[in-house]
UniProtKB/TrEMBL annotation:
Keywords: DNA-binding, Transcription, Transcription regulation. PROSITE patterns: HTH_HXLR (PS51118). This is Transcriptional regulator, HxlR family. Transmembrane segments: none annotated. Signal peptide: none annotated. The keyword DNA damage does not apply. One of its GO terms (molecular function) is DNA binding. Pfam families: HxlR. Residues 13-118 form the HTH hxlR-type domain. It comes from Fluviicola taffensis (strain DSM 16823 / NCIMB 13979 / RW262). The keyword DNA repair does not apply.
Amino acid sequence: MEQKMTFEQAKSCPIQFVLAMTDTLNVISGKWKLQIIGALLFGKSRRFTEIQRTMPKITPRMLSKELKELELNGIVKRTVHDSTPVLVEYELTESARQLQEVMDSMIQWGISHREEAKREIALEKLAV
């Protein structure tokens, strides 16, 4: 019987820490996945074209591929409505909604890092 790993156990063991981090990155890594998740965090569900509008540089083919991968990994739920024309909507699973905290931390870090980089560049220009 496999024992569940706790957060504290993973943090205290380098091997488990790396495995847990690898599992996470395998699901959300790539140029578009976090952006798709971010687009779906705002609102209950969205149609394909609504998601694409929030990410103008992604091609329809790439969006379709990424949505399929996210669905396979249990991050996105795809619902097909029996209507004419057929309506397909995407929404985050409950598990994926837990990424909100991770993404909030990443955004806070990104803002802070950008400001720090700007300060360093300004200081370098003053030193020259």
